[in-house]
Specification:
With 256 residues, the protein is mostly beta strands. Among the domains are: 86 residues, Thrombin, subunit H, CATH 2.40.10.220; 74 residues, Thrombin, subunit H, CATH 2.40.10.220. It contains two helices and twelve strands, in the order ββββββαββββββα. Strand 11 and strand 12 form a beta hairpin.
């Protein structure tokens, strides 16, 4: 009786009278291999259409043009990226007024009533209430036209410093190149001053013009668009919060 294979119980030993099987050449052996999985090509998923492609009107890509959005919450900086007779696509720096209907003002002062149709983290789509003359908008991309500094109206309390003087001021508007302030202190033309507020880090500027207590300043170093957008938007949010607190305080006083 043959000895059992190592590790195999006796009951599993093949019978001795079983006919030995003849080995076949390697190429004749049939190996049962699982069939290769059938891979079906999945149809390519088309990319989601971007918002501006949903418009039927032809769109024109513009050179980068600054503009602003105006509402009763304040003024917010944006950049026009492309436009059609139906609307514009803008870059908004992350700051947008909460209103659905707002005013859209170009750098040359032209203003249009628009509806906020969509927005994402960087861009937004604005729809004109009525058709516009697209040539008036595209014309802004021409290098032959003088570019007007875009000023953003605001109301920030700040202070100016020069020589031994420290004086409170109200910042009435801001641009990349300068500011308009109101100050009770007499300041000489071309005087170098330092301007700052809670939302504006100290910047150096020179007085370019004066009209009563109102002064026009030119910054020594210009502000970036991102920084300008952040300063003005933060000032608008701060003012809205102050108004809300004042209204709550007034309501509490009336209840008592």
């Amino acid at each position: 009786m043959p000895e059992p294979l190592s590790g195999m119980p006796l009951g599993d030993v093949p019978p001795t009278d079983a006919a030995p099987q003849e080995l076949q050449p390697a190429e004749a052996l049939k190996v049962d291999t699982p069939p290769a999985p059938v891979t079906q090509e999945q149809p390519a998923v088309p990319p989601a259409p971007v918002q501006e492609e949903r418009r039927q009107a032809p769109r024109f890509t513009l050179l980068i043009q600054t503009a602003k959005l105006v509402s009763h919450h304040g003024e917010f900086l944006c950049i026009v990226r492309d436009a059609s007779t139906e609307g514009v696509r803008i870059r908004h720096f992350g700051y947008l007024p909460p209103d659905e209907y707002i005013e859209f003002e170009l750098a040359n002062g032209q203003r249009f009533t628009v509806q906020l149709m969509w927005k994402d983290e960087e861009y937004a789509g604005l729809k004109f209430n009525s058709g516009v003359n697209l040539a008036r908008i595209v014309k802004l991309a021409s290098h032959t036209l003088p570019k007007r500094q875009l000023r953003l109206s605001t109301e920030m309390m700040g202070k100016v410093s020069f020589a031994d003087v420290r004086s409170p001021v109200t910042i009435r508007n801001l641009s990349q190149q300068g500011a308009c302030i109101e100050c009770a202190e007499r300041i000489a033309l071309e005087q170098l001053i330092q301007l700052e507020s809670d939302d504006l880090e100290p910047v150096y500027a020179r007085v370019r013009w004066r009209k009563g207590t109102v002064y026009g300043l030119v910054f020594v170093d210009t502000l970036t668009l991102d920084r300008l957008a952040q300063i003005v938007a933060q000032a608008a949010y701060d003012e809205a919060e102050r108004q809300e607190q004042a209204e709550l305080a007034a309501a509490g006083a009336n209840d008592s």
